[in-house]
Amino acid sequence: MAARPTMKDVAKTAGVSLMTVSRVVAGEAGVAPQTAARVEEAIRALGYQRNDIARNLRRKAQDSRTIGLVVDDLANPFFSALARSVEDEAYRRGFLVLVGSTNDDPRRERDVVSAFSARQVDGLVLVPTGGNRAFFRAQMARGVKVVCVDRPATGLDVDCIAVDNRAGTATAIRHLLNHGHTRIAYLGDRQEIWTQHERFVGYTEAMTAAGLEVDSLLIRHGLRGHREAAAAVADMMAGPNPPTAFFSGNDLVTLGAVEAGASRRFALVGFDDFVLADKLDPPISVVSQDPAALGRTAAQLLFGRIDGDDAAPRSVVLATRFIDRGSGGMAVPPAGGVG
Amino acid sequence: MAARPTMKDVAKTAGVSLMTVSRVVAGEAGVAPQTAARVEEAIRALGYQRNDIARNLRRKAQDSRTIGLVVDDLANPFFSALARSVEDEAYRRGFLVLVGSTNDDPRRERDVVSAFSARQVDGLVLVPTGGNRAFFRAQMARGVKVVCVDRPATGLDVDCIAVDNRAGTATAIRHLLNHGHTRIAYLGDRQEIWTQHERFVGYTEAMTAAGLEVDSLLIRHGLRGHREAAAAVADMMAGPNPPTAFFSGNDLVTLGAVEAGASRRFALVGFDDFVLADKLDPPISVVSQDPAALGRTAAQLLFGRIDGDDAAPRSVVLATRFIDRGSGGMAVPPAGGVG
DNA sequence: ATCACGGATGGTAACGTTAACCAGCTGAAC
DNA sequence: GTTCAGCTGGTTAACGTTACCATCCGTGAT
C-alpha cells in the first residue's frame, strides 16, 4: 500500500539529483562509478522500479515497446499456438504483448483494438474479423503498424501472412477424388470468414475441374464448433443419397465429423492438423498448416515495420502440407457410380 | 505518420479550453450540450483518441485498468483455455490483459512480471514457477495484487485457486486397483512443479493405503512433453516384470502414453481431460479439471482484490471429476498376482 | 595567470492528461 | 439594484520521466 518510490526518492536517499538517477537507471554513460554505485544502493534500499508509463509518455517519439495481439479465440489451439510464437518473438525483443479475443465479432474487435491503441501500442498482429475497415485505416494513420495473420484484411493495404487455402483444399479434394469418391460433402464455418470462403472456393474449383457438379445438398456453411458439425454430418448421412466423403473446413468441424462418424461410415479429410489425428481409427488425413510459423513470421514482419521498414505491404503465403493417414480411402463406393 | 492529435488540438479546433475537452472525453457532467456537441465534432474531425498512457500517469491513485496474466505455456490447451476465460472476465470489466509465458523458467517469470509491474498493472493472475519468492513479496508491497492459479506460490501469502490434485489422483489409482492392477506405474513431469508433486503424493498414498509397495522402477519424473513420455513407457514395457497399468500426471504425458500404447498393451488413466480422449481405442479414462472455471474464479478473485477486498488470502480448491471411459480395465492381470 | 576543454552533475521544461480551484454569467429573490 | 445560487468554462499545478542546456571543476596548453 505504501506509495511507490520515485526517482525523486532515490535521488534524495542517494544525495544526488534526479537526473543522475535517471541516467543510472537508463544505463547512460557519464556518471562516475562511485556515484552510480551510491544510486544503485539507494535503488535497492527503496525497492525502486522505473515507472514505464511515465517513461513512455515523456519519450513518445520512441516506441512504447508494446504490441497488441488480436485473435478470434485464444482458447482455440490454432490461435494459442500462434499467440505463443508471437509472444516469444516479442519477449526476445523486450516487447510486451496485450492480447484480446474477438470471438469473430467486429464490435469486440473494435473495442479491443481501440483500447490497445489508446495504450499507445506500437503495432498489432491481427486476425481480422472482416469489419472495421475505416476504423483500421484511421488507426494506421495514427502510426499503429498492422500485420494480418491467417486472413487478409479486405480493402486494407497491410502486410498479411496466410497459407494457400485454395490450393491446400484442392489437394485434399483431389485426394478424395483419386480414391473414387464423387459425392464429397463440404462442411465449413461461416462463409464470411475469409479462410472458410477460400477453402470453399478451393473445393468448388477442384470439383468442377474433375467434371463434377457441386450438389448444394452436400454443402453446409456456418458450422460453429464441433457440435453443430456433428449434427450436420448426422443429418446428411440420414438423408437419401448420402455423401461417401466429407471435407471439413477447420479443426473444430473435423472434430465434429469424427464424433459423428466414429463407425467408419465415410471418408474424411480436414483442414488443420490436430492432436491425436494419427491415433484415431481410422487415422485422419489432413491439410496441415503451421500456426507457430504463421505467428513467428507475422511478428518478425511487424517488428520490421516498427523498426522503420516502410516498403510496400507484403503478402506472405505459406504452403500447406497434405498428410495422408488413410481416412480418405474409407467407404469407397463401387466403381460405376450411383447412376 | 502525422503526430496524433491531443486534447489541445481538439480544444483549438472546437474553440474551447483544454479542460472542456477533457470533461467531454471523460463523459463528465457540467458541459452545455451545444459545447459538448462542438467538441465531439472536433474530435471526429481530427480523429482524436485519448492517450491512456498520459491519463494513467495523471490519475495514478486510480487503477490502470490493466492486469497481467503469466502462465507456463500459452500454447498448452490447458493454459490457453484458462487464459481465454481470464481475458473474458477482464473484457467485461474494461480491463486490458498483458500475457507472458514463463516456460517454467523463474528467470523469465521474473523478467515478465517485472516488465508488467513497470507498466503499472493493477494485478496479476499467475501460474507460479516456484522461484522468485522475495521478488513477489516486493511486488506486492508495491500494491500489485497477485492471485495464483493451478499452483500455490510456496511461502507467499496470496490467494490461490487450484484443484485437489491428491484426491483426484487417488481416485484414479483406486480405480486401477479396483480393476485388479497392482503394478501401476507413475509418469510425471518435473517434481518441482507443485501439481506434479501433489499428484505423486496422491499416487503414493493410494498405493500405500492399499498395502502395496511403491516400486521405484515404476516411477518416472521429469517427463517434458509427449515424446519423452512415450519413450519412458516403451522403456518400462521392454523391461522385466513390466507394469500392467500407467497413471500419467498431465495431458502431455498421457498423450505420450497413448502413442506408446496404441496396441492396448496396458491400462491407462491420466490427469487432465483432452480432446478426443473418448474417441480413442480404447477411450481414455481421466481425472478432469476445468481450466475455464479456474481462470474465471481467479479473475473474479483478482478483481475483487483490485476493488479493495483486503480480507485474508483465500485458498479455493475446485473438485476434479473422474471420467471412466474404460481404459482402466485393459490388460487386467490374472488373479493371484505375479508371485 | 588565463583560457579552452571535457567529463560529471544539476536545473528546467516539457510529454498529455486530470484534480482542484477559480471566474464569469444568468436569473431569481429580496 | 444588490446579492446569492447555480451553472459553465477556464487556469494552474501536478503525475514521473527524459531532452536539453547550463554549470562546475580540474587539467593542460598558452
UniProtKB/TrEMBL annotation, chains A, B:
It comes from the Bacteria. SUPFAM superfamilies: lambda repressor-like DNA-binding domains, Periplasmic binding protein-like I. GO terms for molecular function: DNA binding. Residues 5-59 form the HTH lacI-type domain. Keywords: DNA-binding, Transcription, Transcription regulation. Pfam families: LacI (PF00356), Peripla_BP_3 (PF13377). InterPro entries: HTH_LacI (IPR000843), LacI/GalR-like_sensor (IPR046335), Lambda_DNA-bd_dom_sf (IPR010982), Peripla_BP_I (IPR028082). This is LacI family DNA-binding transcriptional regulator. The lineage of its organism: Bacteria, Bacillati, Actinomycetota, Actinomycetes, Catenulisporales.
